[in-house]
Amino acid sequence: MDKQQTFIKTIREHEGIIYKITRIYFEDEEDQKDLYQEIVFQLWKSYDSFNSKSKWSTWMYRVALNTAISFLKKDQTKLKRSSSEQLENFKMEPFDPVMEERIAWLYRNIQELNVVEKGIILLYLEGRNYEEISNITGFSTTNIGTRISRIKQKLKNQIKTD
Amino acid sequence: MIMELDEMKSLWEDMSEKLERQKLLTDKVVLEMTQKKYRTKLNYISIPETVGTIICFAGAAYALVNFDKLDTWYLVLCGVISVSFCVILPILSMRSISRMKKIDVNHNSYRESLKLYAKSKDAFVKVQKAGYYLGFIFSLAVLPVAGKLLRNKDLLLEAKLWIWYIPIAIAFHFLFSRWVFKHYTSATKGARSLLEELQD
Fold first, then answer.
1. ipTM above 0.90, yes or no
2. pTM for the complete prediction?
3. What residues in B contact A86, CB-CB < 8 Å?
C-alpha cells in the first residue's frame, strides 16, 4: 500500500474523531465542514514528518487542535469557500431524537468553556490519560489534573443554571 | 437535564461508537481534501485589510511621485504625515495578521499555539486601535495634500472649508469612538484573559 492509500485508510478509520473536534469549536455546519477539510489537509501536509514510533492518535489530536486554533482567527478574516461538490453532501446522520438532544446539550455545554478547556475536555472525554493530554497540550500532568477538576466544577455550575 | 462529567463521558463514548459506525468518507473525498484546489482555504488575508492596503499604497505612491508639488513647509509636513500613515499602518496590520501563519500545527503544542493566537490577536487589536486614533490626524493632514496634488489648491488657506470640515471630522470620530472603544476593549480583554489562563 502506498503512502497516500495508507493515509486515506487511516483518516477513514478516524473520521469520527475529526468530526467531534470540529463540532466542539464551531456551531455552524459550514464552519465545521471547513475545519474538517483543513484538518485533513494539514494532516496530509505534515504526514511525512509523522514519526511512526509515536502514536498516530497523539499526533492527529495535536495537528487537529492546532488547526482548530488557526481557524479561530476567522473572526478577523473572510473565508474563501471553494468546497468540492462531493463535500457539500458530507454530513453525519442524526442519531435517534433523544440521543441527538442529549448530544446537542453536551456540545452546548462544552462550547461554553473557554478555548483552553475545550481542548482538554475533548481529550479527557476521548479517554486519553493525563500523560497523553500533557503531551498534546504542553501543560504538565499536574496542571492537567487541576484543570480537569476546575472544568468539572465549571460544568456542574453551568448545568445547575441550565 | 442533570449530568455529571462521568455521565458525559459515557454519553461521549456512546456517541463515538455510533460515529465510528457511520462511514461517510470515501477514498475520493479524502483524496479531494488533501488537494489544495478543493480545499476551503483559510486565506489569512482579510478582504477589508487587503483592499485598504492597496488603496493606502496607491495613495502613498501618488503622493511620493508628486511630492515636489507640496511647496510650503506645512504642506510638506501634511504630506509626510499622510504618506507615513498610508505606509506604516497597513504594513503593521498585515504583519499582525500574518503572525497567525506561524502556528506550526505539526510541532507546536496546543498551549504554544494558543499563546501565539492570543499574542497575534492582541497585536492586531493594538494596530487597529492605533489606526483609528491616528486616523483623526490623518483625516486632517490628507485634505490639504489631496487639494494641492489634485487641484493645485492650498486648502489650508481656505478658512471656510475648515469651519465645517473639522467639526464633521470630530463628530465622526466621537460617534464611532464609543463603539470602537467597546469593541477593542472586549477583544483585548479576551486575548489577555487567554494569555493569563495559559500562565497557570
1. no
2. 0.78
3. 26, 28-29, 32
